[in-house]
Amino acid sequence: MAAISFDPGFNVQVNQKSHGVVVEEIEGLIRVYKNGNVERPPIIPLVPCTASGGVAAKDVVVDKYTGSWIRIYVPNYSHKMPLLVYFHGGGFCVGSAAWSCYNEFLSGLASKAGCIILSVNYRLAPENRLPAAYDDGIEALMWVKQQTLNGPIEHKWWLSHCDPSSLFLAGDSAGANIAYNVSARLGSHGSASAGSGIKPLVLKGSILIQPFLGGESRTATEMHAPTQVNSALTLSASDAYWRLSLPFGSSRDHPWCNPLGSGATKLRELKLPPTMVCVSEMDILKDRNLGFCNALGNAGKRVEVKIYKGVGHAFQVLHNSPFSQIRTQEMISHVKTFINQ
Where does the Alpha/beta hydrolase fold-3 domain lie (predicted)? Predict the structure, then answer.
């Protein structure tokens, strides 16, 4: 997710001590100072892990050193369920698996789509620039692999309901970028299929919701899209997130930002799983997302494109449009079909 709409009167001073010159700021979300200090006003509340609506949930530490952890959602189904590893949005710089909006969306998705969801809380930029988030994604998958192989008693509550042969990577915005780059990394080591290094887990597909991509050249929707009150991403915020998250000195044509750029691995050379891309009609990323889908198809990859009318970036978690609830249910229905086909 990216620049979230908020009340201009909301002004939380995270640290009363002045840190001097501000070098980057996305109003209401993040402020970065020249001396390296970073402030993130709590614009969206963090919520504890609680069971609700027939969905059991628990937080589990993956790596004490990096601080990465996951929130596990297990709906009350008697049969084995697909496993969805999910990465939240936030331009790589903000967001949390404990944000209330993700807790609500993912618990609903688990219940209605009939899947176990592991929501990854990865390291954020600029303190931890890319590829830190990708590394945390790979580490989360390796952790799941080990639990599947060892079957510890403390994780039986979700492992016993999980079908390891039906794994999906998913995420929205920056989280979709992470899901894509993790799947690309899994499929770039000369293996016969995407994800062969995580057996007994079998990577069946990726679900990319409004994937956060960029490039030095602007698309039509980036240049000409009117300011939308029901879309969470602006061009200026997008540029700021890339400046804060890419390696120092990188342009927006870096392969992690622009997978179609000259420096990126050719899509045809990657062993990617079937992919579903969810595109919002009012999103400035619309053209870039559709161009990416076309490139995947032209490279011989299986890709499904779903376009959501009348809604903008991150509608499914922010509910910032009159159509949000309807389109969110459509999205959940599409995800359910994709993971059960």
Answer: 84-316
pLDDT at 15: 44
What are the catalytic residues? Answer: 173
Nearest to 143 by CA among 31, 89, 241, 65: 65
Please write the tens of the pLDDT for every residue from 70-128: 999 999 999 999 999 999 999 999 999 999 999 999 999 999 999 999 999 999 999 99
Contact 57, 49 (CB under 8 A): yes
3-state helix, strand, coil in the chain (%, to 5): 30, 20, 45
- The distance of Cα 49 from the centroid of its chain, to the nearest Å, equals 19
Identity of the amino acid at 76: N
Q: What is the pLDDT of residues 280-301, one digit of tens each?
A: 999 999 999 999 999 999 999 9
Count CB-CB contacts under 10 A for residue 34.
11
User: Model's pTM, two decimal places?
Assistant: 0.93
Cα–Cα distance measured from residue 109 to residue 107, given in angstroms and rounded to the nearest whole number: 5
Residue 154: exposure state from Cβ atoms within 10 A (0-12, 13-18, ≥19): exposed
Name residue 301's beta-bridge partners. Answer: none
Location of structure tokens 């494109």: 305
DSSP annotation of 46 reads B
Angle 54-339-231 from CA coordinates, rounded to 5°: 80
pLDDT category of residue 18 using cuts at 50, 70 and 90: confident
Report the amino acid identity of residue 165.
Answer: S
Length of the chain: 341
Helix (H, G, I), strand (E, B) or coil at 234: coil
How far is the C-alpha of 24 from the C-alpha of 31, rounded, in Å? Answer: 6
The reported pLDDT for the residue numbered 50 is 83
DSSP string, 165-181: EEEEEEEETHHHHHHHH
